[in-house]
Amino acid sequence: MSLNEEVDLLRKIPLFANIEPSKLKLLAFTSERLKFREGTELFHQGDMGDSAYIIIDGAVGIVVSTPNGDVKVAEVNKNDIIGEIAILCDVPRTATVIADQDVEVLKISKELFFQMVGEFPQMAVEIMRELAIRLEKTTSQLTQALNS
Prior knowledge:
Layout: H1 3-11, H2 21-30, E1 32-36, E2 41-43, E3 51-57, E4 59-66, E5 69-77, E6 81-82, H3 84-89, E7 96-99, E8 103-109, H4 110-119, H5 121-146
Antiparallel strand pairs: 1-8, 2-7, 3-6, 3-8, 4-5, 4-7
């Protein structure tokens, strides 16, 4: 995939939709493009987070370890971002992420991620929006589980 194709791909992600193309080129150029085979772990719950990942193609499962075993809590697909909580909050990974199928990602280092957020306040707003949506969904699921 060419640099311009990666920029087009990044532009489709709400987090990066309002960032000027020259900055998206920088992001695409300085990020690492990785491929994972189905069943491969991208990162493990409890590991320290050093990067976030944008799903370019494929899907991954979000798995949380519990006293009763591992539980798949979500599936994340193309154009979604994962791993941002660990780098935003400086906490260990909150879940294990496993490729549900062959997957291709763009790995963004913690330093580059914070540089982009610092330069583009709109990106910070989009991150807050995405995290609020996830929190609302989790709260709803928890409420349903407690009422069952």
